[in-house]
Write a structure and sequence with these properties.
Elements: H1 2-20, H2 23-41, E1 44-45, E2 54-55, H3 57-68, H4 72-86, H5 98-101, H6 106-125, H7 132-161, H8 169-176, H9 181-198
Antiparallel strand pairs: 1-2
Helix pairs in contact: 2-3, 2-4, 3-4, 3-6, 3-9, 4-6, 6-7, 7-9
């Protein structure tokens, strides 16, 4: 029991410390998460029927908002996309530059920012969101809606305007979504488990449900 109490206090102290950091220190942490995203982007598998590779970077994206908070998770992915567009070679395959962002996978990177902002908002706002099931649902929504929708929209534009190939909805799903579903669900489950274990179940930021979350029976 004493170990559990000490562990919970440590998690509270870390998240409270993270919330109270100065802006320069938060920028350093955001840059660190951007670098981790770029590192995991190099773990990739190219599929012969799709211009979109399977990468590990979405794992970092799902954790960015949880670990950095409401705004800074999104800022970290904005740094990742902005510096990558400026030429830093940390997109998949050590690529960078504006041409890459305008290519078939650029929309997914835009979605990364939306996903991190979304998850950071719920992590900081609601204690209930830090349970495994709640976090898993939020991460699946972030992955399959906030990342996939802008990703598929840009992929469709790229196929039509650059490749001259008409992009049907079924075709877009076949090359830009369906091959990645199993891997993305696996990454979301692991990320939700990490978030469940790492986040405090006490309020560190005046959460709106701080007086009633304990009555909700979620693991």
């Amino acid at each position: 029991m004493a170990v559990a109490v000490r562990l919970n206090q440590t998690k509270y102290d870390i998240f409270r410390w993270r919330y109270e950091l100065s802006v320069p220190k938060k920028l350093v942490m955001a840059l660190g998460m951007a670098m981790l995203t770029g590192l995991l982007a190099q773990a990739r598998i190219y599929l012969p029927w799709s211009p979109v590779p399977v990468t590990g970077q979405t794992f970092a994206v799902l954790l960015a908002g949880v670990l950095l908070g409401r705004w800074w998770g999104g800022i970290s992915l904005t740094i990742y996309g902005g510096l990558g567009m400026a030429g830093v070679p940390w997109f998949a395959g050590l690529n960078g530059g504006f041409a890459y962002m305008a290519g078939p996978t650029g929309g997914y990177i835009v979605g990364f920012i939306l996903a991190a902002l979304f998850l950071g908002y719920f992590t900081d706002k609601y204690i209930r969101s830090r349970s495994f099931l709640s976090m898993l649902v939020l991460m699946l929504f972030a992955n399959f809606i906030l990342i996939y929708v802008p990703g598929l929209l840009q992929l469709g534009l790229w196929l039509n305007l650059i490749k001259g190939e008409p992009a049907t909805f079924t075709g877009l799903l076949t090359i830009g979504a369906i091959p990645f579903i199993a891997g993305d669900i696996t990454k979301a489950v692991v990320a939700a488990l990490i978030a469940r274990g790492a986040t405090p179940k006490t309020a560190y930021n005046g959460e709106v449900d701080k007086d009633k979350w304990s009555r909700w029976r979620l693991p």
